[in-house]
Structures are given as structure tokens and as C-alpha cells.
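U., I forgot to send this yesterday:
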Amino acid sequence: MKMSKPHIVAIPYPAQGHVIPLMELSQCLVNHGFKVTFVNTEFNHKRVMNARDDESHIRNDQINQVPISDGLELWEDRNDLGKLSEAIQRVMPMKLEELIEKINQEEGDKVTCVIADESCGWALEVARKMQIRRVVAFWPASAAALEVIFSIPKFIQEGIIHKDGAVLKSQMVELAPNMPTMKTTDFIWASIGDKTTQEIIFQLMQRSNKTVKLADRLVCNSAFDLEPEAFTCLEPQAFTLAPNILPIGPLLASSRLGKAAGSFWAEDSTCLEWLDQQSPSSVIYIAFGSFTVFDQTQFQELALALELSNRPFLWIVRPDISETTPYPEGYKERVGSKGLIVGWVPQQKVLAHPSIACFLSHCGWNSTLEGVSNGVPFLCWPYFADQFLNESYICDIWKVGLRLDKNESGIIAKEEIKNKVEQVLCDKSYSARASKLKELAMINIKEGGQSNMIFKDFVEWMKS
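Result:
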């Protein structure tokens, strides 16, 4: 008789930085004998399927990728996170319930666990309503970012923010010593979109603070050694606000010698051959994730800065940007083979390449972990959400990178970029600290490391 496998339904928030780490966790769980149904929105499911190459077909049938509607019309803008979040909460709970019912009525392994992004509290509600045995919240970002969200009631009480999330006092906030500092105007919700979007995202976070209590466990894509103060801060709150918070990161495909999955764009691997031809520690790698947009002036300043640096560079310009934003006149001819500009790359492989010297990054948490885990120094250019917090970790706490400062017109000028590139590459203390931080991160996920042991306990609990 065939033994049934524990069957997980995994639901990410529908953004690239949420899909990839949950897919990574899913692949780790598959390696431990679980079956996973991975639920993307129809829009993202199509993108993920179209972006796959032959190699990245998940190498077994244990992850079944399933689409459900996000409630928006095909032509509506998924980068409008307020509109997207509202539509999701309206439509997806019912769709998820129908999906779980359908799985449980079919021949095969019944659903034993739901793992949902902490921002998808509605999915935790569905799991509880349907009496799923194990209910887990997944937090794909830093513990510090979670602490900021859990501190919302305190910020309201102290008159720092209004009950609708509007910032009342512009000041610097530090939640605990040795934790990142941030401007109140850079609070996660306060830096996303327009005022309406900010209010919607703020309400979503307040709702998540309530729904997270429905989870039995809260797993976090971080390591205790990377942010001990944040995890220590979260511990007293765990009993009132959340279940046990388990650091199991960094979740990286490269750590299990696998291939990253879940990308929204096709990855151009030819850049690795180009990197092979460059000197060790010589290339500036520039990538801004899936959301960052630039106006034409800023885009051109960056382009000219890379030319001025007179160093080889690999610059990721997403297809949606390259179609709308022109390069300076004659730019590509002048740069020639010194610079390679491509649409999307296998980033973990790029950052692991010996020719990479530094990472000019938007400081999304996945990119931050990937840079840290490869011992690469940073130049920080945050765009929104938790990226300012991650910038503070990189520059103030870990001291493995530098900020880029805007001029009086709100532009990061080409001279500023060129000077900071020189500074981070010529001062060897940045790469020395980055190498030490890499050891600290990687020791956690190796056999006997703290994240590794917590993950094994988590697997045992899931199976019990």
C-alpha cells in the first residue's frame, strides 16, 4: 500500500520577492518528503511558466504549480499594490477554499498543512476554517521588518503615526540598540505608492498582525546571527502577537546546490560566460529587483556613472524599463564590451562569480541575503518598503556597504555614484567585513548550524 505524503499548500504574496523564497522553502520541504501545491495568481503563474528554461523545470513532480485568480482584470496594473491587495482579499479566499476542497476530494494526498505568506492573513483564516492540521505563516523578509510591523500599535500610541498609518512626526526611529535605524517617512507602508495605496497596505499590515495569531509557527527567511537583536526583540512579543518565530534562512538555491525557481522573467545565463572573461573582483553588478523604476534623468545619470567608472559592469535593465527609457546618445557604442546590459539573470550564480567586485542594489531582502551569502560589498539604492531598513543593516550594522546620497534636485548624480564605487572598491575593509559576514550567514545553514537545526525540528513537527 502506498504511503501518503504530507501535503502542503503554499501561498506567497504575489510579488517576486515573496514568490522566490517561498518556492525555495517548498523545494527544501520536497527534499524532506513533502508534496507541495504552490499557488500563484493566474497572472504570476503565467509569468513563471513562460520564464522557465528546460533546466529550471522543477526536477520532480512533487511541486504542483497551480493558478488562481487575483481578482483583477488582465489589463489592470499589478504594480499598483493597493489595488492588487484589495482585489486579492476580495476574491482569493473563496478560490483557495475551492482549491483545497478539490484536492481533498480527489484520489491522492490530502492537504495536511497550509504555509501562507504572513501578508496573506486571509489564507491563514481559510486554513483554520477548513481545520487544516498545520498552519504556518512565512515571513520572507528580515526579522527587523517584522518587528516594525508588530510595533504599529506602539507607534500609534506614541503619536508617531496616525491610526490610518500617516506619519505625524518625521524623526529617526531605532527599535533597539544595534538594530537598524530608519526615518519614520521610510516606514514600510509609508514609502509605497500614493496616499491611498499607503493606507491600504497599512490596513493589510494591521490585519496581518491579527491573523498571524492563527498560525502555529512563523518561519522567517533570516538567521539569528545576522540580526540577533531583532529576534531577541521579537521573543517577548511572540506570546502576545505571534506564534514561535523560527529563523531558517538564508533560503538560497545555491546552498542546496539546486537551481532557483519562481522567476517572473526569463534568465539570461550568457552573462556568466561574459563574467568568465573578466578579471577577479573587477565587475560592478547593478540590479534593482522587480519594482524599482527610474525617471529618464536618473536612468541616464546612472548610465553615465558606469561609463565614467571605467570598470567592467553587468547591468540588469528589466524588459519593462528598456522599452521605455532611452540611454544617453551613443552610449552602447562608447561602452562597447566593457559593459554588459541584460534583462534578467540567475542572480545567485552571478553574485557567486569570482569576477564580481560589488553589488549596486535596491536592497530587497532576497538580494541582500544573496549578496551577504557571497561576501560581496554593497552600494545601496533603496526604492521602497523594507529596503531602507535593509540599507541600514548593510551600512550601519554590518558595515559592508555605502549609501548613495541624492543632490538638492533629488537625483543621485553620476559623480556621487562614481566616487562611492571607488570608495567601496579601494577600501579593502568592506570586502573583509563582507567575507566575515558571509561565514556567519553560511554557518547557520550548514549541518549543525542554528538555522539548519531549527529547520529540521520544523520538519519533524510538520510530519508529526
